[in-house]
């Protein structure tokens, strides 16, 4: 099918990009792509066994554009204390937030239990389980047509903003209060009516049949 051919070609492109980065950086170390193409079951989720199972690793950020960029990097990890170092050895501000249960359970939702025994289901769930407990986020500034290597190590200082007061953003008409520990909007204020309301988002899903997809 067309989606399958696209997914297969994406895997080949990743191999070519990894080889190009190796040549550009002058290294022999194998570069891992933090997605699901290796397993062949692309689900577009916050799952990365490479970053989750390691206490230190490096992230290579490549910028193919003709102007500098600063993209947000989000990595699944274990634990809440991490430190990020930039290409020049400078400390990079980062934030670590807990991985919510719904996101952590997404891989298990794609298991088709039809015809499987209880033992087989338990084994399959163990293989699919997302072992990350938090998401590490930081900005990666990269020069035009260049790359940057960011070192990530466990056991760093407390996450930036974990003890901060809620922040507020406004456009003059409405204000949003944001909890820095969760990055979630907690209140909305209408400046015209001077009314403040609590705000929260609850995610759900529709299960069409018993036994998974």
Work out the helix count: 4
> Which structural category fits the helices and strands?
alpha+beta
Shape category: globular
Radius of gyration: 21 Å
Intertermini distance:
19 Å
Low-confidence stretches: none
Commentary on this structure:
With 213 residues, this protein is α+β, with helices and mostly antiparallel strands. The protein has helices at 2-25, 49-52, 101-109, 118-128; strands spanning 56-63, 69-77, 82-85, 91-92, 94-98, 134-142, 146-154, 167-170, 174-179, 184-190, 195-198. The strands form 3 sheets. The protein has a 4-stranded antiparallel sheet with strand order 1-7-3-4, with no helix packed on it. A 4-stranded antiparallel sheet has the order 8-9-10-11, with no helix packed on it. 9% of the residues are buried.
Set out the fold topology:
Elements: H1 2-25, H2 49-52, E1 56-63, E2 69-77, E3 82-85, E4 91-92, E5 94-98, H3 101-109, H4 118-128, E6 134-142, E7 146-154, E8 167-170, E9 174-179, E10 184-190, E11 195-198
Antiparallel strand pairs: 1-7, 2-6, 3-4, 3-7, 5-6, 8-9, 9-10, 10-11
In a few lines, what is going on in this structure?
By secondary structure, the chain is α+β, with helices and mostly antiparallel strands.
């Amino acid at each position: 099918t067309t989606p399958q051919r696209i997914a297969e070609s994406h895997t080949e492109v990743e191999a070519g990009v990894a080889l190009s980065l190796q040549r550009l950086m002058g290294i022999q170390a194998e570069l891992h792509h933090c997605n699901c193409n290796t397993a062949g079951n692309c689900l577009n989720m916050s799952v990365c066994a490479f970053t989750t199972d390691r206490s230190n690793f490096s992230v290579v950020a490549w910028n193919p554009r003709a102007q500098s960029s600063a993209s947000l990097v989000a990595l699944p990890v274990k634990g809440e204390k991490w430190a990020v170092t930039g290409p020049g050895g400078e400390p990079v501000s980062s934030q670590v937030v807990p991985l919510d249960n719904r996101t952590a359970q997404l891989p298990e939702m794609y298991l088709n239990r039809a015809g499987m025994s209880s033992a087989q289901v338990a084994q399959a769930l163990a293989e699919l389980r997302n072992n990350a407990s938090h998401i590490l986020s930081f900005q990666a500034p990269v020069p035009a047509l260049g790359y940057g290597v960011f070192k990530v190590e466990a056991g760093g200082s407390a996450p930036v903003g974990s003890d901060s007061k809620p922040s507020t953003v406004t456009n003059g008409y409405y204000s949003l209060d944001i909890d820095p520990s969760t990055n979630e909007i907690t209140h909305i204020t209408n400046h015209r009516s001077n009314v403040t309301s609590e705000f929260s988002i609850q995610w759900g899903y529709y299960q069409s049949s018993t036994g998974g997809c």
